[in-house]
Amino acid sequence: MPFGLGAHRCIGESFALTEATMTLATLAAHWRMQPVPGAPVRPALKAVLAPERLLVRLHAR
Question: Model confidence over 4-16: pLDDT tens digits?
Answer without folding.
Answer: 887 888 888 899 9
